[in-house]
């Protein structure tokens, strides 16, 4: 397929909408017939209210719709198109299928198949746990970490082991505070429960609601979940809070842990006596992005430069290393 034709079938607008096929917009508004929400993070919800007004349907996984409702971004029932993974739906001449993406609960990749083309968009993802969409004419890929300079030198399991050690040590002294984004917090709750942490998890009502939805998604019981007002002084508890609450809560007695994939100095970095950064991310590393493309073998790669850093470097690297045509948009 000629590149000009390929770019008519997949592109990214200056407002971050990923255009797929003739009918679909994903993670941004462009006035198309169908809007897909890959997951419930703010940078993928741009123009959602406009899409609700203009689109025939808004498609997402059932879990993502539940997250959106809790976050106050609900889509009216008559506009919802809940799509479980691997359940294709046809809209006019195109078929839309959502595939699982390992990022937060309910995250999805999007594949659109037309009469003579197949195009797809990864959304945010990490590996292992995200099966590449193979043989697409065009692949639109997230590259949040877009160069070797942002490559973590350790694996996710190393970060989880270090986090577990910090949490267990902190609980012996009292309260542990963990800060992160919605979705990541719930994933960490699940991982800690799987690794034997039994102390109560405390959070605000919204974070607790999200945790119960994620608990169903991962099939892992994260109870007991309690509100801040149920905490008892001196009893071991793990407090989960959105990352933007760190400044207001950091002086409270206890161990404070920030989850951030931007920490590249080490797996765990001690910031002050009781404050630590743990290098834990829900995005693919640079190496994982390249591995995905190498396995997928698309005809053309479009690297998301609206959300990703150094996307143009990623595109050049893909062309030179893998011999697959690639460009960064917008």
Task: Give a written overview of the molecule.
The protein is α/β, with parallel strands linked by helices and 330 residues long. The protein folds into two domains: 3-149 and 283-329, Ribonuclease Z/Hydroxyacylglutathione hydrolase-like (Metallo-beta-lactamase, Chain A, 4-Layer Sandwich); 156-278, 3-Layer(aba) Sandwich (Rossmann fold), CATH 3.40.50. It is 28% helix and 25% strand. It contains nine helices and 20 strands. The strands form three sheets. The protein has a seven-stranded mixed beta sheet with strand order 7-8-9-10-11-19-20, sandwiched between helices. It has a seven-stranded mixed beta sheet with strand order 14-13-15-12-16-18-17, covered by helices on one side. A six-stranded mixed beta sheet has the order 1-2-3-4-5-6. Strand 1 (10-12) and strand 2 (18-20) form a beta hairpin. Helix 3 packs antiparallel against helix 6 and helix 5 packs across helix 6 (205-218). The mean pLDDT is 95.
Count of β-strands: 20
What is the string of SSEs from the N terminus onward?
HEEEEHEHEEEEEEHEHEHEEHEEEHEHE
Distance between the termini: 21 Å
Helix fraction by DSSP (H/I, runs of at least 4): 25-40%
- In the CATH hierarchy, what is the class of the largest domain? Alpha Beta
Q: Helix tally? A: 9
Strand order of the largest sheet: 7-8-9-10-11-19-20
CATH architectural type of the largest domain: 4-Layer Sandwich
Number of domains: 2
User: What is the alpha-carbon Rg in Å?
Assistant: 20 Å
The stretches of 5 or more residues where confidence is low (pLDDT under 50) are none
Give the DSSP E fraction (strand runs of 2 or more residues): 25-35%
Q: Report the oligomer.
A: single chain
Mean pLDDT: 95
Overall shape: it is globular
Under CATH, the topology of the largest domain can be stated as Metallo-beta-lactamase, Chain A
Most strands sheet: 7 strands, mixed
Name the CATH superfamily assignment of the largest domain.
Ribonuclease Z/Hydroxyacylglutathione hydrolase-like
Going by helix content, strand content and strand pairing, the class is alpha/beta
């Amino acid at each position: 397929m000629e590149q000009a034709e390929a770019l008519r079938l997949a592109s990214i607008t200056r407002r971050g909408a990923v255009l797929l096929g003739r009918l679909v917009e994903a993670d941004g508004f462009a006035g198309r017939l169908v809007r897909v929400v890959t997951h419930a993070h703010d940078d993928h919800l741009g123009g959602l209210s406009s899409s609700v007004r203009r689109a025939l349907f808004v498609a997402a996984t059932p879990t993502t719709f539940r997250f959106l409702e809790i976050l106050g971004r609900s889509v009216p029932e008559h506009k919802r198109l809940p799509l479980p993974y691997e359940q294709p739906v046809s809209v006019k001449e195109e078929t839309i299928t959502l595939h699982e993406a390992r990022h937060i609960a309910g995250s999805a990749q999007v594949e659109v198949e037309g009469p003579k083309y197949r195009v797809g968009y990864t959304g945010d993802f990490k590996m292992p746990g995200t099966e590449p969409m193979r043989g697409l004419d065009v692949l639109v890929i997230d590259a949040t970490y877009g160069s070797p300079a942002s490559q973590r030198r350790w694996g996710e399991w190393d970060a989880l082991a270090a986090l577990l050690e910090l949490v267990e040590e902190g609980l012996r002294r009292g309260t542990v505070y963990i800060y992160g984004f919605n979705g990541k917090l719930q994933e960490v709750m699940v991982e800690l429960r799987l690794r034997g942490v039994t102390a109560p998890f405390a959070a605000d009502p919204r974070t607790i609601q999200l945790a119960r939805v994620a608990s169903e998604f991962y099939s892992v019981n994260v109870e007991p979940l309690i509100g801040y007002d149920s905490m008892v002084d001196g009893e071991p508890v793990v407090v989960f809070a959105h990352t933007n609450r760190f400044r207001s809560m950091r002086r409270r007695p206890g161990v404070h842990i920030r989850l951030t994939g931007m920490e590249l100095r080490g797996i765990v970095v001690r910031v002050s006596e009781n404050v630590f950064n743990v290098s834990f991310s829900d995005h693919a590393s640079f190496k994982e992005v390249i591995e995905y493309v190498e396995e997928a073998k698309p005809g053309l790669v479009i690297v998301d430069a609206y959300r990703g850093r150094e996307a143009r470097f990623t595109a050049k690297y893909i062309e030179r290393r893998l011999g697959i045509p690639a460009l960064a948009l917008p």
